[in-house]
User: What shape does this take?
Amino acid sequence: MFKTGLRTSSAQPRVAIIGGGIIGLSIAFELAFRRGVRVTLFDTRECGRGASWAAAGMIAPAFEAAAEAGVHPRLFDLCLESAQLWPRFSADIESVSGLPSGFEPAPALAVATDAGEAAHLQAIGEVLAARGVAYKALGAEDVCRLEPALSREVLSGLELETDTRVDNRRTVTALLTALTANPRVTFVNTPAPLKSRGGRVVLEGHDAIVAAAGWETAVIKVEEQGGLYSLVNWDTALDDIDCHAGQMLSVAAGAGAPRRVVRAGHVYLVPRGGQVVIGATMEPDRVIDEPEADVIEALRAEGIKLCPA
Assistant: This one.
């Protein structure tokens, strides 16, 4: 966040949010509904689309942060606290919008189909046990009983009470419905006219600026002495945001399809709206607008291997 140093004409503060994905929309919701702050939300594209619309919607502090090599030592704490906020957040969205938030608290199922995946699950379990976080260790028969359609090659599993899911398309739809009806919120579909004054980034009429554009933060421009320069020049930490592409596919949820999120190594199965989302690749430094047929076919094959049904 950048504090502009400019006061608005009213005693009521106004905050500019640049980026209308699920993060920007959630910040706007917090400010407008819970804190009574006026908000201007800038995005040159349709809000709530892009990765916010395409993502599988997993809330996965344990599987993705508890025992991952190379991550920040406090990442698990951050993810766990974030996951704990979802029940109240989703209830507030539903109360204000009158629409379902898409949050589903059913615990995820993480399974292992080889020794490497089993070791990873063991490491997750050890971290959770040390922190007093609830989970259930499962044998192959337990996994089969919970999700009979999964492969008989499954060796073991964990039922992760911390890891849930959200239908992100419902979430952004509900957020947009609530925000567009709130007179404190203004949507602007042009770039924010940021300027540099005395080495600080300012936006006329606003008290603070929140950059919520993810990896596209570098594209945000600031005017200085007649030229336009990337916002990262005013906070180089923003340049550390990496771009990762991801590809996935959806198939019809037939009889016996998983009823909950299933994780196995880098593969996941997520039930959503009569379909099962199969993912996903993680491709650093790539921007992909269209799926690639060979990648999608490989993902489909991995999904079939995990869940032959």
